[in-house]
Amino acid sequence: MFNKVLFSLLITLCVALLLLWRVGPPKVAIAPRLPIPENQGKPKAPKAEEASNPGTLVHSSGTPSADTGSWPQFRGADRRNIAAGFSIPDTWPAGGPPVLWKLPVGEGHAGPAIHKGRVFLLDYDEAKKEDVVRCLSLADGKDIWRYSYTSKVKRNHGMSRTTPAVSDRFLVTLGPNAHVHCLHPETGSLYWKKDLVAEYGTQVPEWYAGQCPLIDGDHVLLAPGGKCLLTAIDLATGNTVWETPNPKGWKMSHSSIAPAEFEGEKEYLWCSAEGAVAVSAKDGALLWDLPEWRIRIATVPSPADLGQGRILFSGGYGAGALAVKQVRKDGKIELETLYRTEPDVFGADQHTPILVDGLIYAVIPGGKLTCLTPEGKVHWSLADLNFGLGPFLFVDGKLLIQDDDHDSPGALCLYRVDAKGASQLASAKILEGHEAWGPMAFADGKLILRDSKTLVCIDLTKPGGPPSS
Predict the structure, then answer these.
(1) pLDDT by residue (tens digit) across 209-261?
(2) What is the pTM of this model?
(3) Which residue segments constitute the domains of the chain, with CATH numbers given?
(4) pLDDT at 13 over 80
(5) Is the pLDDT of residue 410 over 90?
């Protein structure tokens, strides 16, 4: 009898142990068993791509120059790409304008901003896989501070391609993976940051984000696509001021927002990947959309405000140009088509046309410098020259062009242009020129330009010999 009872108890205990083994013990934190230090080899550093840097600020020895001028964002203060109120000579010294400083940068096309003796650049560190916001001295190019954070990007015609926006109190950058940071321009300290992909459902364009943030008063304007077409964000807090609904799900392009005015009211113009829009600067209300302006491969140039309600859209990849006029009917704004051009007549691969004294200037697809009337008539075109995809900028009634053509890469050219034509005043080899696509910046007589791997600052205040013929 005793044996039977003992046997039953053993069976019951085994069943209980089996059930306990299958269910498992309560989950508790257990310290891993570590090897004895003296028996360990040298610890291996984590791979660069495995490291994560949420944000690191490093100060350096550079100091701002005494200059007070400003080129505070993409295409200048008013986004018209015209440097006003400064004169430069018609001639350059032998060998070209003096180079004040030159430094290597991460591969890309990000343009600089200039403000009160400081140069701001969104750079990229390929070894560390980090975006790097750099504050440099306008005097000598030395780092004043740099703020870096992890952003994994593979080379695709470079990595960085946006220009920061800066004011006295705020600096805003938008990185290749649509990371937005708002920093103090003097100290580099962080106010706030946003991930547009996570917060707005932004779809990063194929060649990464090329949109440059726009600072307007107390707000920064961004066009995320996804959750909203455009949004105004309070610079001091990072809080949303308004958002423009996006019921059609239009996506982010490489184009940047352009301010405009119609009937005394400010509006913001933007080209998405699926069409163009205008929204009210007051509350972000959608004023109109234009699905007819769509470039399937890549939309890059910004809309150009021609005044009197007229807007010029231009592009590459066979898009040509489209001019429309805003008219108000029954309280709403409607668009009338003024003209459309073929790409060999007028258009723009990368850089937005410039309106000066009633005429429109651009380097059109094929690399020809061309002058167009607001009515769509070609005044003239430099058929024998090819400037490639290089940037251009107006200063003192003259046009600076960075030559990106394979025959003369890196040459900076100075032209006098008007309705009669273009005459070259000077030319000098400044850079090696590989993919010299980044927009230029000008302030206090100093011009900053770049190719894919070098940033250079030159002095345009020194006259030379007689003008080139």
Answers:
(1) 999 999 999 999 999 999 999 999 999 999 999 999 999 999 999 999 999 99
(2) 0.88
(3) 54-459 (2.130.10.10)
(4) no
(5) no
Residue 37 has pLDDT above 80, yes or no: no
C-alpha 350/C-alpha 369 separation (Å) is: 13
In contact, 424 and 49? CB cutoff 8 Å = no
Residue 436's φ and ψ, nearest 5 degrees, are: -85, 75
Residue 271 phi, psi dihedral angles, 5° rounding: -105, 115
Worst-scoring range by mean pLDDT, 235-249, 421-435, 439-453?
421-435
Q: Which two tokens stand for residue 443?
A: 């302030």
Total number of residues shown for the chain: 469
pLDDT at 39: 30
Q: Nearest-5° angle of CA 239, CA 241, CA 245?
A: 115
Residue indicated by tokens 């009633």: 358
